[in-house]
Structure formats: structure tokens, C-alpha cells
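quick one
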Amino acid sequence: MADRQFVDGEVVYPSEEVIAKARLKDWDAMARRAAEDLEGFWAQEAEELEWYRKWDKVLDDSGKPFYKWFTGAKVNIVHNCLDRYQKSWRRNKLALIWVGEPGDVRTYSYYALNREVNQFANILKAMGIQKGDRITIYMPRVPEIVIAMLACAKIGAVHSVVYGGFSVDALQGRIEDSQSRMVITADGGWMNGKIVRLKDTVDEALKRCPSVETVITVRRTGHEVRMEPGRDYWYHDLIGLPIATGKCPTEQLDAEDPLFILYTSGTTGTPKAILHTHGGYMVGIYTTLKYVFDIQDEDRWWCAADPGWITGHSYIVYGPLLNGATTFIYEGAPTYPYPDRWWALIEKYGITILYTAPTAIRGLMRFGESWPKRHDLSSLRLLGSVGEPINPEAWRWYYEVIGGGRCPIMDTWWQTETGMFMITPTPVVPLKPGSGTRPFFGQEAEIVDEDGNPVPDGEEGYLVLKRPWPAMMRTIYNDPDRYVDQYWSRFPGKYMTGDSAKRDRDGYFWIIGRVDDVIKVSGYRLGTAEIESALVSHPAIAEAAAIGLPHEVKGNAIHAYCILRTGYEPSEKLAEELRQHVREHMGPIARPEKIHFVDKLPKTRSGKIMRRVLKAQALGLDVGDTSTMED
Ligand code: WTA
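structure w/ WTA:
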């Protein structure tokens, strides 16, 4: 691959050293093999994991787009994350190194992690949780979030993690939609030197969630919280009970049994619950993490996302454990108490691979080189990027200042729905700053026009995926029609990603951004509908439209256009009140950057808000085709 001829743009080649270290040297050969025999490729990967019973079929596409993988197999992802190591030397390896924002540290060997997962799984069973039950997890970045997820999976319960940065309305909607029987939370978490009071938010949300019978709370911050007798239990009390023994059999599940649901925003309407399963998801993330970040035994892997998003599910929790790796979690803010917190952690813990979002890089770049320069970052060997396109300046800084010009950047394009990396290099692939390079083994991506026809290289269009992959979402929980409608009907037979992109003449893909009503703010995925409904719940607002506009650090910032009810006047005070209102209802990440008071919103004749017109106007661009606009 290194001797490939390139015709478009700047290329950064891997060094001899990187190539020598990489476990997979011949990218082309592997890509060819997977293209010729998709099922054979994935079956071979699956063979590296343990199954209670092997599959009858690798890929069952008889009911497409409801694809199934490894049908007939019996498995549990937790068996491969924990159980299988207990009989080898790996039981003594560190599975998890955790650092709290105030500086407290906890570590878990694979033995210790397994033991606590068993203890907690026994508690869940004693509380009557059964296979298939949904459990909402709403927690800060503490080890118990990992333990809770694994304990659910172990007994076949379906976890639904809600990001701890979300607030009451977002949490309540997700608990209600999933009909969770239990919520696992913490009193609070540390962020920027302050306590985020999660339990209070749970109490508030549960006023409107009758399905929840039990709440288990981890004591993290130690401040006083309300405990309702008969409903609320402390995690540490339960773990201390005699029934919480360190042994618990792992439930033998069908490969297609659900592992988790994760809510994400999409085109119009309420967030949708993306469903992933035990078998295919396990094989997909095991394989992608192994090849893309080349995880090896001496590595210390740090994915700096939050476990509450797909990046955390796949590559903080399940992926590293499936690879027997040591995963690092830091609770708090990158700039607390100083802007070198991350760099200090890398030095102190000897982190070898850092995986984060461009927004974090841009945010830390602002403080200048002197902060990272105070630290010895020579342990790093690979870097990663995810969540949004990385701009060339941030790429350069990350590569030169953090990676010392030694560490290739794995720019991984993927989604909650895809479960695993889809367009990504591996360490031996020549890079182009800002491009995720090419589809992962077994995948084919294409850029198409409105009618689904491929566009010439260099032209922008819709990004679609053409082949099924094991970690693909199986459906939208409780809404299979929406699954078909949103992903598979626009371009029949092809998966519609919702992104626009270009492919260059070297076959490299360049993501441009979302084409739907999703806004990526600091790499976080938000839907315009949720923000708008939070705005409209304020008495002053008759109607609202939210759009994303370019922002130097966040990538996109939310701008809200509001029509006031009669009796209200535009003012800076009201604008601030509205921003605060959205923050309280949705969470800090959804707080609009700017509120614009308007008399009218551009709409189609059928009454749909034309956000693209607002966006074009704000950016001073041509508003494009407005033939469907009302007047
Ligand atoms: C965007 C996050 C450019 C994209 C894993 C996608 C990216 C959405 C990249 C999914 C990348 C993710 N380069 N854009 N490397 N990675 N995206 O579901 O718009 O939170 O559709 O999953 O993030 O966001 P989600």
C-alpha cells in the first residue's frame, strides 16, 4: 500500500517503524480477501472468539433489510469480555484504570472486574430482572457504569445508557420509550470542579415514568440525595449483601438476542432507539479495534469519549475488553484544573493510544503548545479521531504537537447505527489529513445523487453503504417501519447514512456533514426536533426552528429562530432565559449559542420548516430551490 500512486492532495505515509510494529501489514490483501468472500472474512474473525455453540449461517439476508448474523449460534458478549480470561494469565492484567476529576484512582484487574460484575448481576437477578428487561443507566464516568452495563449483558437484560450530560426531559423520554423497569445512577459526578447532580435529575424524571420499580444509586460525590423507601437503594449496600456473591453464570443467549438500545437523534421526531445484538456487534467491534488501533498487550488505550454514546459503548467498554486490553477512563473535564490535564494523564499512565474528537483537539489547541510541551508524551504510538470531520489545522497540531510526528491518526467514520468503524485507515494506510481514507474490510461505500446514481469522483453527494456488516443495527426498537423507512427506502438496497461526502480520485472518502435534521455539536449528536420542543415548552415561544452553524471549536453551534407569542417582546434577557431553559430541559450541550427572534419561519406549503433555507440565509448563501416554499 505504501508504494501506491496518489493523484489528489497531500499524503502522509506511515514510517518504517509504524509498519514494522503493525500486526496487519498488507492492507490490500486483506481488503481483497474480504471483498471476495465477505462471510469467510467475518467467520474467520468470529473464530477468534468463544461461542457456546457455533453458527449455522454467517449472514442471513433472507429478510433484508433485517439482516441477521451468526444465526443459530449461542454466545454472550460478556463471556468474551471477561469469563474466558479467568482461566489464563490475563486475569491478573489491568482491565480498567480509572481516574476521577478530583484525583482519586481506581484500578480493576480482569479478575476484579469480573468479580464485581458477578456481584452486581446477582443483585439484578435478586431484584427480579430477567432476560429482555430494559434497564436505563444514567451515570457519570465512573467504573460502575462499565460494571452496570456488563452485569446487564451478562444476564441478558438490555441496557439503555442515557448520557449523563442530558437533563430531565431527555432522560424521561428515553426511560418512557424503553419502558425500563430499573434505573441505575449515581448521586453525582465531578465536572469542572463542580458536582453534576444526576440523582436529582432522575427523581425529577421519574415523576412521569411509572414503569420504573427500582433505582440503584452509586455514591460518588457524597452529597445528600433523596432516597425513596421501597424504590431507592444504594449500590454499596446491595454489593455488601450475602447474595451478592462473586460467582454468577453467564446467560447463554442467541447471537441475535439484544444487547443494548441506544437513543440517537435522526430525521424528524423523537430520538430513536438503535438496537444492537450480542453476536454480530461483538465480532464487528472486536475486529475493527484489533486492526484499526492494532491493540496489543502492552498498550494502554484511552478513548476519551463518554460511555453514554456509541463511541463509549463500542470502544471504551466492549471493544477493549474483547481484545483483552487495558482501558483508561478519566471522569472529568480536559481543562481541569489546568489545560494540561490530559497531557499529564498520558504521561503519568503511559497511554499509548489516544482516541478523541476534533472538537476536543481544537479546544485544547487554543491554550497553545506550552501545555502539552511540559509533558513527556513519548509513550503515544497511535492517535484517533471521531465524531465529525477533522479540519487540517487541528489534524496538524494533533499530529505534530501531541503525536510528535510519529503517530498516525486513525480518522474513523461511523455512527451509532453502524456500531463499528466503517470508513477508516489502519496504521499502514497512507493518510490524507481530513479524510477517513477508505471503507473497512468487507465494506463498499458510494456517493450517489438524488436518484441514487453514483456521482463522478470529486463531486458531492449522499454517502451510502452497499454491503451488510455484523455490527449493523438490527432495527429501531419498537419501530421497525421507521428503520426501513429512514435507512433503506430512499436508495433501495443501500444503507443511507444521512451524511454528504465526496470521494477523490484515489478512492479516499471526505465527509462533509449531515444532510438531515441532525446537528453535531462538539461531536455530540443532537436532533433539531428535541431542541425545538424544549423551546416551545417555554411560555413565550409559539414556534421555533433550530439549525447548526459553523463554530470554531464546537464544529457546529446551535442557532434557534423563535416566534414569540403575543404579549412577549424580544430582549437579551428573554434570549438568555430561553438558552437556560433549553439547558435545563435537554442538557448543557443543547444550549443554543444564539436566539434569533423572528416574525416568520420559511415553510413548505405542507407546513414543514425549511431549515436549509434558514441556514443558507444565515451563511449568506444562495437559498437554492424554494419552489415548495409557501410564499
Ligand atoms: C459524524 C459517532 C466525519 C457523521 C461515532 C456521522 C464523522 C455522525 C466522523 C454519527 C468522522 C462520525 N469524520 N464525520 N471520522 N465520525 N462522524 O451516531 O456525520 O454520534 O453520521 O456516532 O457523526 O454520529 P454518532
